[in-house]
Amino acid sequence: MLNTSLHNPNVKDKPTVERFIAMNRGINDGGDLPEELLRNLYESIKNEPFKIPEDDGNDLTHTFFNPDREGWLLKLAGGRVKTWKRRWFILTDNCLYYFEYTTDKEPRGIIPLENLSIREVEDSKKPNCFELYIPDSKDQVIKACKTEADGRVVEGNHTVYRISAPTPEEKEEWIRRIRAAISRDPFYEMLAARKKKVSSTKRH
């Protein structure tokens, strides 16, 4: 607020340091902050205004500039009707993004790879398949999001993501790259270990 008041040309009545100190009385749980601190803060903002970075609309372009891997894959839809959808996948920053077209600026879905595992699977309808899944959990929904046709962003509903690659070689390479990108949360591992311990104790 002080930054705007001091540096916005439309504000004619610039606040003095005394007014700034008066405005901030009682903000420290009912008490006052040290006057020297407020004076230093005032001078700092006066001499060096905050600059908000301009939104050039290319944030995602930078994100996807140097991906670990990208290419066309088939993804099994998670709705009631299980259909295969061709999507452009980009692997970067420990996330798997997928797009409807290579020219799309916004992804149709984002799958954070944290705490996930990957495995090869056989599918009667598609060759070269692999799955992303949560270890030690059959029914837990993977934390992910997707954009609906009407533009709404919703949570994903997959307990596994089944994906088909065009060739065996591409399948192997995708698995290798995704496995390398997967990051594990120590807290999650601790909970999983504790869960195993509790279940084994119950069995005894």
UniProtKB/TrEMBL annotation:
CDD domains: PH_GRP1-like (cd01252). Pfam families: PH, Sec7. Residues 66-183 form the PH domain. Residues 1-48 form the SEC7 domain. It comes from Myotis myotis (Greater mouse-eared bat). Gene3D superfamilies: Arf Nucleotide-binding Site Opener,domain 2 (1.10.1000.11), Pleckstrin-homology domain (PH domain)/Phosphotyrosine-binding domain (PTB) (2.30.29.30). This is Cytohesin 1. One of its GO terms (biological process) is regulation of ARF protein signal transduction. GO terms for molecular function: guanyl-nucleotide exchange factor activity. It comes from the Eukaryota.
